[in-house]
Amino acid sequence: MLLDKLKHYFGYTSFRKGQQEIIQQVLQGKDSLVLMPTGGGKSLCYQLPATIFSGITIVISPLIALMKDQVDALKRQGISAAYVNSSLEQSDINQIFQQLAAGEIQLLYIAPERLSNYYFMQGLHSLPIQLFAIDEAHCISQWGHDFRPAYTRLNIIKEQFPDIPVLALTATADVTTRKDILQQLNLTDPYIHLDSFDRPNIRLTMADKFQGTQQIISYVKKRKNDSGIIYCNSRWQVEKLAKSVAEAGISCAAYHAGMEVEIRNTVQESFAKDNIQVVIATVAFGLGINKLNVRFVIHFEPPRTLESYYQEIGRAGRDGLPAEALFLYDENDAQRINKRIEQGENLQRRHVEIQRFSAVTGFIEAQTCRRQLVLNYFAEYTQTGCGNCDICLDPPSQFDGLEAAQKVLSCVYRINQQGGVEHTISVLRGQLTEKIKQQGHDKVSTFGIGKDKTLSYWHAIIRQLIHLGFLQQDIANHSALCLTQASHSILKGEQPLLLATPRLQKASYWRKTAETSNYDRKLFAKLRTLRKEIADAEDIPPYIVFNDATLSELAKYQPVTSHEMLNINGIGDTKLSRYGQPFLALIKEHVN
Q1: Assigned architecture for domain 398-500
Q2: How does DSSP assign 375-387, residue by residue?
Q3: CA dihedral 572, 573, 578, 579 (to 10 degrees)
Q4: CB of 587 within 8 A of CB of 554?
Q5: Nearest Cα to Cα of residue 450 among 434, 439, 462
Q6: Where is the HRDC domain (predicted)?
Q7: Helix, strand or coil for residue 268?
């Protein structure tokens, strides 16, 4: 029966790892805690049981946009669902309760704050509820008081409905957070499913940040129409970067908590509908993202915790297709975060935050597989490299850096220690800027001696020389580079010097994987255009019609009959009847 329901409503012929066992526990009425990676299929664990239950499944979800998207998708799969949140009038809510009482709705999505409303809670008591599902359950512990206080009060469910099973679901929770979730919710002898945290389709890439805005623009332009998210730590940085990226001709929008709710909702909706290619955001843009075809996530500045990092990169590649998480690193960014943490008034909290940020700096400085480091942090111990991060693909190496160091130090000396990093590199590379001409630095003997190397190369070399104590920056003089006592032995060649080979940003690691995919790319592009037209006509995000993984299968197997189309993952009976004909017609036309 489960497989029949899975195929009929969701269009899949088999369960993903762990899903069937979780669903069976739910159907048996057990409390459960489920940890699955983002995109691992958590929502199916309560959506499928809802199609079997004679009563109602209540889903506690954090954001309005997320509820709306899920309800829209369920309706198009033939499952009756509704949501109750602040976007509705009381008359709409009353009508929904009438439909619930009449057995016309199987799934009801609500915000956690609703459970604090006495009259709403009385209304729930009158309904035949069979399951409470709590999505993003890590909010109960990890973000708790700071993010959503109502999540910390969800123990009211067991107090008010002691005999109804609770299913708590999250993608990221360390050992401490898991214990806290179980304790806070007061679950009874729960079934605990700990799936792998691994998202092998996401390539983890670290690159030195130099002229970060230009790096972002270059990176996004190479990805043409691919959707992506860029995370910054401050509203100011979000708006500044968004302005520069937009001026470069890229379709983008800013998003942060200081913006009007209507504007934020418009940005999120436009991104979901593929009308905006890139969103540049603070962490305010997070939990409500149900967009499956995000191909890249960039961290323009470091997150404060590895939990945050893993949550945020989890927005990418939810359809299982290749994606990339790019981290642009500048040690000045890390120093600013450390300073902010140390200014915190709560000593205990400050200590915890310093510990968590030290895990982020460990990730940044890793000389071994980055994914291995993250998985070990979440107590999913592994001894082997992933083969899909920059360390595995391009292992760190050292080289005889004496000559490179001498060029830099000589240049600093020749310009009388009066230039910062960027100015010094411009002299090395022979760039005739206005400032260089004014100061006569185009006349020094070191002008142009490093023109055979890139800007990023010299940036990485100078950073290492600062770390090793051969250079320092004069903060009182616009961060001008200065020689140190130790630099003299390098200039004279009196000691050997090994430097790390600069880790330069590769054009695109993950595209190599994607381009080997065995499907007709021209047909895929046509299918994508058709999907957008249908989605726009129905005023829904394109992935609700079919996600990219389904489109790639259509482009690969090219079905020309309804029966053949039902063999494609993600196409069930309802979606076939609703969308099948236009896609079949397009495929037939392309094949012929």
Answers
A1: Orthogonal Bundle (1.10)
A2: HHHTT----S--S
A3: 40
A4: yes
A5: 462
A6: 517-592
A7: helix
Tally of CB atoms within 10 A around 391 = 21
Q: Can you tell me the distance from the alpha carbon of 337 to that of 462, in angstroms, rounded to the nearest whole number?
A: 22
Please report, as a single letter, which amino acid is at residue 447. F
Give the CA angle between residues 19, 20, 25 to the nearest 5°: 100
Report the 10 Å Cβ neighbour count for 543: 26
CATH entry 3.40.50.300 includes domain 202-393: yes
In this model, does residue 516 exceed pLDDT 70? no
For residue 402, pLDDT over 60 is answered with: yes
- Residues 6+ positions from 342 with CB-CB distance below 8 Å: 350, 354
| Residue 214 token pair | 């230009």
List, in sequence order, the alpha helices (H) in 396-479. Answer: 402-414, 421-428, 434-439, 455-467
| Angstrom distance (rounded) from CA 485 to CA 525 | 61
CA distance 162 to 155: 10
Instruction: Read off the tokens for 202.
Output: 């996401």
pLDDT of residue 394: 83
C-alpha–C-alpha distance, residues 43 and 316, integer Å: 17
Whether 515 has a pLDDT exceeding 90, the answer reads no
For the chain, the structural domain boundaries read 2-194, 202-393, 398-500, 517-591
Q: How far apart are CA 377 and CA 400, in angstroms?
A: 34
C-alpha neighbours within 13 Å on the C-beta side of residue 66: 17
With 60 as the cut, is the pLDDT of residue 146 above it?
A: no
Q: What is the DSSP string of 155-169?
A: THHHHH-TTS-EEEE
* Percent composition of the chain: helix, strand, coil (DSSP 3-state, to 5): 50, 15, 40
Q: Which two tokens stand for residue 103?
A: 């057995």
Average pLDDT taken over every residue of the chain: 87
- Report the CATH fold assignment for 517-591: DNA polymerase; domain 1 (1.10.150)
pTM: 0.76
Nearest to 45 by CA among 61, 62, 27: 27
Instruction: Answer yes or no: are the C-beta atoms of 249 and 315 closer than 8 Å.
Output: no
| Residues shown for the chain | 592
In whole angstroms, what is the distance from residue 167 CA to residue 257 CA? 30
Amino acid found at 470: F
Helix locations, 259-346, DSSP H: 261-272, 306-313, 331-342
Same fold, 2-194 and 202-393: yes
Question: Distance (Å, rounded) from C-alpha 176 to C-alpha 567?
Answer: 43
Residue 475 pLDDT more than 80?
Answer: no
